[in-house]
């Protein structure tokens, strides 16, 4: 099973998003974990690689299973884990364009309307607006139409 880590920076009421050229969808910068790498290390490394900047004090906000099913909805075609981190600041100036797409700052509210996978919308909106950690499973068609989401969350991480 593939493991992916992404990291969303929110600063001054704006979020730094990567616009992917293939679908024109927005995502948080991130990518595949390397063997032996922790989810934290992967999120930090991928953020630097994709943005040219360094996130300050990222923390885990979500753990998700992403499932792609066939047209019948009964057979799993692909599945991966996604670990989402959030940081409230960064060091350096992000690139404008990378091989992965264009980096853009958007108002936090735009997460509700920008084109993106609907599971990402659920994930990123939680990250910027709720305390705790969210867990979930998202079921998609092969065309990335969201069929179903199962969400849980914990506020335990907010207490000492």
What are its keywords?
alpha+beta; Nucleoside Triphosphate Pyrophosphohydrolase; 46% strand; globular
Q: Write down the secondary-structure element order.
A: EEEEHEEEEEEHEE
The unreliable regions are none
CATH architecture: Alpha-Beta Complex
Cα gyration radius (Å): 15 Å
Please count the helical segments: 2
Helix coverage percent:
10-25%
What is the general shape?
globular
Brief summary of the model shown:
With 160 residues, the protein is an alpha+beta fold. 16% of the residues lie in helices and 46% in strands.
Describe the protein.
This protein has 160 residues and is an alpha+beta fold. The protein has a single domain (2-60, 78-134), classed as Nucleoside Triphosphate Pyrophosphohydrolase. Helices cover 16% and strands 46% of the residues. It has 2 helices and 12 strands. It has helices at 39-51, 118-129, and strands at 2-11, 14-19, 26-27, 30-32, 54-55, 59-69, 76-87, 90-91, 97-98, 101-107, 133-140, 146-154. Strands 1, 2, 3, 4, 6, 7, 9, 10, 11 and 12 form a 10-stranded mixed beta sheet that branches. A hairpin with a 6-residue loop joins strand 2 and strand 3 (26-27). It is globular. 28% of the residues are buried.
Note the topology.
Layout: E1 2-11, E2 14-19, E3 26-27, E4 30-32, H1 39-51, E5 54-55, E6 59-69, E7 76-87, E8 90-91, E9 97-98, E10 101-107, H2 118-129, E11 133-140, E12 146-154
Parallel strand pairs: 1-7, 6-11
Antiparallel strand pairs: 1-2, 1-4, 2-3, 2-10, 5-8, 6-7, 9-10, 11-12
